[in-house]
Amino acid sequence: MPKKDFSEEAIPSFVEAPSVVAITGDVAFFVEEAAARARERLASDDAEVIRFPEEAPPGAVAEALLNRSLFSSRRLVEVDISRLLGADSPGELALAAFEAWARSSPAGKREAFRRMRRLLVALDLPAGGDPDETAEAIARKVRRRDLAEPLAELLRELPEEKGAGGASLVSTLRLLLDRENDGLVALLTAASPPKGAELLAEVGRKGLLLDVRIGEKEIDAALGRLALARAKQHDVRIEPEAVACLRARTDSQPAIFASELDKLLDWAGEGGQIRAADVGEQVVDESSEDVYSFFEALGRRDAGESLARLERLFSGREIRAGKRSFDPEDGWPQIFLGMLTDEIRRMLLVHSRLAEAGAPRLEPQMNFDRYKDRVAPYLDEPLPPFGKSPFGGRASGYPFYKAAARASRFTAPELARALARAADVDVKLKSSAPILETLTAYVGGVIAGA
């Protein structure tokens, strides 16, 4: 059974439910909301309900799943399995744990502990090892030596867990998935699960996997509920204008909104207040659009995301490219076309050089260090009869690394055609042609290789 969007109608009654139901989503608050609705529906048939938080000993959860209730013929066991699933990017998880720890608030420490437990699972490291050695291992694996010391401090305060490890709980859940509902249903939740998590894939095939998505029509109300609920938990007063400002600053992206809200609540402190001016001072404006995000989508030849990004780049919002920013009212169409053609030129140059006999092979997923070791030295070799490299000794830089990765998904003729067509596009833009329509046609052609 594939993953379904969460809705009231998608929740079965207890007797109709499979043995395992899982609810996932990008933001823990909305997953918790959905789980509460699912729990109410599943427990409406007089089922005994046992709830476990994410930090509960896995052995205790496994025991509750393997045993039957003495007081009811039906048992519903709810548990957050986020840490059992690991993470897509251990590096990002390590940084998030450090940032949460640096907040020094009780909520920040709880978040740091949660992320650290997920990180240990992702890297297959023991939770009870020597803190300094474990922190060094983490720093080495994620290539962030600067995190070793603060992560060691975090590990020293990480509460000790009792009970069997996560492996036994995963085995128990898989055992349940192979059985029909015989009076016991496991309700699993996970916020921001890694892509391709095997356990969730199994739930999708054998049980019921529901994903929480917040639609555009309900996003304002949903983020308002999130802000008020979190503020109440922290005993902080947040003005309605501050919530609106935070929505604008984060472009109503739920995960970013939730993250920045937590930082604001820690900043305000218990009994504090958050005003709109505070949001303006404390939160970076995410409603601007990053040119490099467009280049990433273009390099993947993802037409849908590329054209959506392009539309955002010409929606009047502030434009960013790394640390630089651009005024959308000050010659932005020509600036953008120049940046795009420069990138296509880099891609064509790299592609042509690596197509030569004896050139190293470049894989789209090659990491930066491997590129610098294997590919960049070849690109920087001087070419006869010029006696110098067309890259000017700069091939080991990050821009050429990204250009090389993008170029690997195109052919040289496709890139050459794209570069040749740029001159026509420039003429059209200077002749008062519709900007977005003209660029959309051009970008679509680049992706299609036309």
Q: How many structural domains are formed by the residues?
A: 4
Roughly what fraction of the amino acids lie in strands? Answer: 5-15%
The 3D shape can be described as globular
**SS element count, helices:** 20
Biggest beta sheet summary = 6 strands, parallel
What's the short version?
By secondary structure, this protein is α/β, with parallel strands linked by helices. It has helices at 28-42, 58-66, 90-102, 106-123, 131-142, 148-157, 166-177, 198-206, 219-233, 240-249, 254-268, 276-282, 291-299, 303-313, 332-354, 368-374, 376-379, 398-407, 412-430, 435-448; strands at 4-5, 20-25, 48-52, 75-80, 184-191, 208-212, 237-238, 273-274, 289-290, 319-321, 324-326. The mean pLDDT is 86.
Notes on the protein architecture:
This protein is α/β, with parallel strands linked by helices and 450 residues long. It has four domains: 4-85 and 164-212, 3-Layer(aba) Sandwich (Rossmann fold), CATH 3.40.50.300; 90-152, no CATH class; 219-282, Helicase, Ruva Protein, domain 3; 290-448, Zinc Finger, Delta Prime, domain 3 (Up-down Bundle). It is built from 20 helices and eleven strands. The protein has helices spanning 28-42, 58-66, 90-102, 106-123, 131-142, 148-157, 166-177, 198-206, 219-233, 240-249, 254-268, 276-282, 291-299, 303-313, 332-354, 368-374, 376-379, 398-407, 412-430, 435-448; strands at residues 4-5, 20-25, 48-52, 75-80, 184-191, 208-212, 237-238, 273-274, 289-290, 319-321, 324-326. Strands 1-6-2-5-4-3 form a six-stranded parallel sheet, with helices on both faces. A three-stranded mixed sheet has the order 9-10-11. It has a two-stranded parallel ribbon with strand order 7-8. A hairpin with a 2-residue loop joins β10 (319-321) and β11. α2 packs parallel to α7 and α15 packs antiparallel against α19 (412-430). The longest helix has 23 residues, at 332-354. It starts with a strand and ends with a helix. The model has no long low-confidence stretch (mean pLDDT 86).
